[in-house]
Amino acid sequence: MTLDHKKLAVIHIVKRELDLSDDDYRDILERETGVRSAKDLDEKGFRRLMRAFAASGYYRINKHGLTLRQKMYIGHLADDLGWDEEHLKNFLNKYYHKQEIERLTKGEASKVIESLKNILKRE
């Protein structure tokens, strides 16, 4: 059975977020699942591919351990707050002395997430 369109979309979002070339993406896909197209994946292959992304250096945004999941969650929380990119950038600069999400360490990103969640609770 093939994957539903939502899971295929997740794969392609991750590919884009990780800035993988098409060749690199297909090589990872083939190495981990035995297929060269996400359309040929089943549920087991999807889980294997996602675990491979999570366990590999590809899943890390920077050398300080920031993960794609953290980056996406921070963006989601900022959207929930109604913040534009400039507002988020100013927040990061003021409290974390970083100009952009990609410069955060894994620990800093965790603190940013908790801060944004607390701000959201108060609103």
TrEMBL record:
InterPro entries: Phage_Mu_Gp16
Protein name per its UniProtKB record: Mu-like prophage protein gp16
